[in-house]
Specification:
Layout: E1 2-7, H1 14-26, E2 31-36, H2 42-53, E3 61-66, E4 85-89, E5 95-99, E6 114-118, H3 128-131, H4 133-141, E7 148-151, E8 165-168, E9 174-179, E10 190-195, E11 198-204, E12 216-226, E13 232-240, H5 245-248, E14 258-262
Parallel strand pairs: 1-2, 1-3, 3-5, 11-12
Antiparallel strand pairs: 4-5, 4-6, 6-7, 8-9, 9-13, 10-11, 10-14, 12-13
Helix pairs in contact: 1-4
Length: about 270
């Protein structure tokens, strides 16, 4: 089994090694790959659950995610209790197990064949993704459906937020939550893009490399997936040819609001 471990522990944090070690104790033949998202970023977590889970890959896959800000209840927490564990099954039979928090399931809620609460303790440790959840995850991976509890309904999960920064890749490209099919501009249209408080001119392109060096492109990016109805979702990106769009916009954080308007200057 291929396991994608998505968590907000921090790049290089030994917490990844600890959780990986516990998962392999329960599933010794698995291969575990780690993806770090920013602290408490349920938006980035949900985005990558969908990007990895809904795209082609190994036939026997599981996504184990943990981004748990413990924001479901502002009161004091007895026994380190936090958000509950959930199970989802995608149309390609990829299993998704992790904490239901914020937007973690928002991008897959309409695609999943099943979504359930997992009957496992919500407390017992400050580090539940290491000490409590791996055993339940292994039981699910091994086909134990008795551990599944009540059904999670789509309306219990928030919709993905529109017009936000979803991710910044290693080249400084800004992936957004703007669906490409919602853009009604002619190719090479000049637009003004605002990310947070920073504004920049850009060119709308139907392909990022179809712009000159030094030009900021607003174009369909490399991220997206096929929905269960057969339609493809592709997300817009900001790409600075020969530069770094993230730097251009003052290093915005994930979830920062993005807007764009047609440039009316002549």
């Amino acid at each position: 089994m291929l396991i994608d471990l998505i968590a907000d522990y921090g790049t290089g944090d030994p917490a990844f090694a600890e959780v990986r070690q516990r998962l392999l104790k329960e599933l010794p033949t698995a291969r575990v790959y780690c993806l770090s998202v920013p602290p408490f970023s349920t938006l980035a977590t949900g985005f990558w659950i969908a990007q990895l889970g809904l795209n082609p890959g190994a036939s026997n896959r599981l996504i184990y995610h943990n981004c748990a800000p413990r924001q479901d209840d502002s009161e004091a927490r007895p026994d380190n209790e936090g958000e509950g564990l959930t199970y989802a099954l995608l149309p390609n039979d990829v299993i998704v197990v992790g904490v239901l928090s914020g937007y973690t399931l928002s991008f897959i809620k309409e695609e999943a064949k099943q979504m359930h609460i997992v009957k496992v303790s919500r407390g017992g440790s400050q580090f539940r993704s290491r000490d409590v959840f791996p055993q339940a995850t292994a039981a699910i991976a091994n086909g134990d459906k008795n551990i599944l509890g009540e059904v999670i309904k789509e309306n219990q999960i928030p919709n993905p937020p529109g017009e936000r920064v979803a991710w910044i890749d290693g080249y400084g490209n800004i992936k957004t939550t703007i669906p490409a099919h919602t853009i009604s501009l002619e190719p090479d249209s000049k637009v003004v893009v605002r990310v947070g408080d920073v504004v920049s001119d850009a060119v709308y392109s139907d392909g990022s490399f179809k712009v000159p060096e030094g030009t900021l492109a607003f174009a369909p990016g490399s991220s997206g997936w096929q929905r269960k109805d057969g339609k493809k979702v592709r997300w817009m990106e900001l790409f600075l040819r020969g530069g770094n769009a993230w730097e251009r916009f003052g290093r915005p954080k994930i979830n920062r609001v993005i807007s764009y308007t047609l440039n009316q200057r002549t």
